[in-house]
Automatic annotation (TrEMBL):
The keyword Isomerase applies. Its cofactor is FAD. This is UDP-galactopyranose mutase. One of its GO terms (cellular component) is cytosol.
Amino acid sequence: MYDYVIVGAGLFGAVFAREMTDAGYKCLVIDKRPHIGGNVYTEKVEGIDVHKYGAHIFHTSDKGIWDYVNRFATFNHYINKPKVNYKGKVYSFPINLMTLYQVYGVTTPQEAEKKLQEVRVTIANPANLEEWILSQVGLELYELFIKGYTMKQWQKHPKELPAFIIKRLPIRLNFEENYFEDIYQGIPKEGYTFLIGNLLKGIEVRLNTDYFSDKEHFNELAKTLVYTGKIDEFFGYRFGELEYRSLRFETKLLEGNYQGNAVFNYTDSEVPYTRVLEHKHFNFGRQKHTVVTWEYPDTYTRDKIPYYPVNDEKNNAMYRKYEQLARSCPGVLFGGRLAEYKYYDMHQIVGSALAKVKAIKAQKV
Ligand code: FAD
């Protein structure tokens, strides 16, 4: 008998299991995949950590969360500075003074601001993503960086998408190319699988084990179930199926230095992939060989991995019904990106698992 059966050996499940084990509770972690780590999993290929489910860079401004993850792995000093390739030309990204120099030839913040004022389209109340971007940077930058990429990623025209999807994208009047603005940033030197392995040290883990293959059995094994899988699946899709976008990866082992940077975004709609990753650059690798991954957006079906929730009004309304049901589900705790139908960065997942643990401990006192 266990105190907690935790469905999912991803970041949420691993942090929760570690904290509860350290507090004296007996935990069992199960995962249907053949490995731990969920989407942060990295696999060693010829000494290179390959980010199997897309580029993962840890970033946070919360010292507590940074100190927490550093207890389980040493982080390198990688700073994410992706580049854009549009029709064979390379641009600095996110949009900054270097980008504006490359596109318009402006060299100072004053010149750049003047140019932006000229090219911005006046739209009083931008109603969708296209209008919002046009009102911020005008037609040329929209077509160079946003339009094709967004159409590939979401399989929808930017006119059909809400502005909030991209409001996170910084537009800078300085030469700063660091994609993230957080105080702390890096990647575990030994890969994320090493970090998750340390979190799960001494805890029973069963891989290739789908909760739904025998859910009555797993429910009986513990007083409390912690569920980090898809919430609609947990409730038998009774209110319908929540939509996701998926991804498909093609990976090759090559010689040398393929693109000179860890991440390149391909923003032209004619190119079918959205990103090319060269994994050794995530860890300053100087190996003779290199591992390169092409990332293609893909339609989600149940046999694929759900990557990005489609948080439009229809899906959010459906999620709220599931959330309501989850609130009155005794003995089950829901957590993580799939159970909450929300895009979470890793630091937010760590924060939410630690907060859940804190709340449980407070109740038990
Ligand atoms: P998951 O990692 O999905 O873990 C859930 C686990 O539950 C999975 O292992 C799954 O197999 C298992 N499971 C589900 N159903 C069952 C079942 N029925 N039975 C048994 N097991 C089950 N964040 C950053 O901070 N920086 C980044 O650079 C970054 N890049 C990203 C890039 C991409 C392409 C994506 C999609 C996400 C990125 N993220 C990034 C976000 C990061 O991946 C998530 O924050 C994190 O993986 C969420 O952890 P989780 O435990 O909630 O979910």
